[in-house]
Write a structure and sequence with these properties.
The protein is mostly beta strands. It has one domain: Methylamine Dehydrogenase, Chain H (7 Propeller), CATH 2.130.10. Strands 1-18-17-16-15 form a 5-stranded mixed β-sheet, with no helix packed on it. The protein has a 4-stranded antiparallel β-sheet with strand order 2-21-20-19, with no helix packed on it. Strands 3-4-5-6 form a 4-stranded antiparallel β-sheet, with no helix packed on it. The radius of gyration is 15 Å and the shape is globular. The two termini are 21 Å apart.
Length: 207
């Protein structure tokens, strides 16, 4: 089945802290959190101000929120971080076999993208065990799962940047074409998506 295609509009485009690369994005209902090399940054979209910066060594890919804690990929590990003070309360092994490139939490599981392998793994958030793997035909550059809908960012492969919604079997059901150079981290929020981008850009896009 041919997926439906729509053009996305960039509603907001912000550089919260310089041009350093954003590696993962999540939203806790009030603050947008993103990984930036060795730290987690909390950004208030209402005031457009950075309100918190917490050291997290190796935080270079994939950020997710489960309603209480932030999950952050750091090298070969997934760190479970208390957002109030940055304390790491638990660690589990990240799925191997490639470069992690996105993460989302939903119903006790983590959805973890692998960049050039073009895969998304469904992982038990308590044990780290891989319970399912979906395969893409494009590089995976961010993952979001909201209300049962799994979305991922696709870019960095010489093609236009896209946000894609998947069916349960991994087939693409919907595509939003995003007029940006790159997507690095994705999180659904309300009627749109927060997306990391090139040179430290944080954007809110919607269809």
């Amino acid at each position: 089945m041919t997926p439906s295609r729509r053009q996305a509009k960039i509603v907001r485009d912000i550089q919260p802290i310089g041009e350093k690369q954003i590696h993962g994005v999540t939203f806790d209902g009030k603050l947008v959190w993103f990984a930036r090399d060795d730290e987690l940054v909390a950004f208030d979209p209402d005031t457009e101000e950075v309100v918190r910066r917490q050291p997290v060594p190796g935080a270079t890919a994939g950020t997710a929120f489960d309603g209480e804690h932030i999950y952050q990929i750091a090298g070969a590990e997934i760190l479970v971080v208390r957002p109030s003070d940055g304390r790491i309360v638990r660690r589990l092994a990240a799925p191997g076999g490639g470069l992690p490139s996105g993460m989302a939490w939903a119903d006790g599981h983590l959805w973890i993208g692998h960049f050039r392998e073009a895969k998304i793994h469904k992982v038990d958030a308590k044990t780290g065990a891989v319970v399912k793997t979906l395969t893409s035909d494009r590089f995976v550059t961010g993952v979001s799962c909201v209300d049962g809908a799994l979305w991922y960012g696709a870019s960095h492969d010489g093609k236009p940047s896209e946000l894609r919604r998947l069916s349960a079997d991994g087939s693409v059901e919907e595509v939003l074409e995003v007029p940006v150079e790159s997507i690095s981290g994705v999180e659904r929020a309300g009627d749109g998506f927060w997306c990391g981008g090139e040179k430290g850009h944080l954007r809110f896009v919607r269809a």
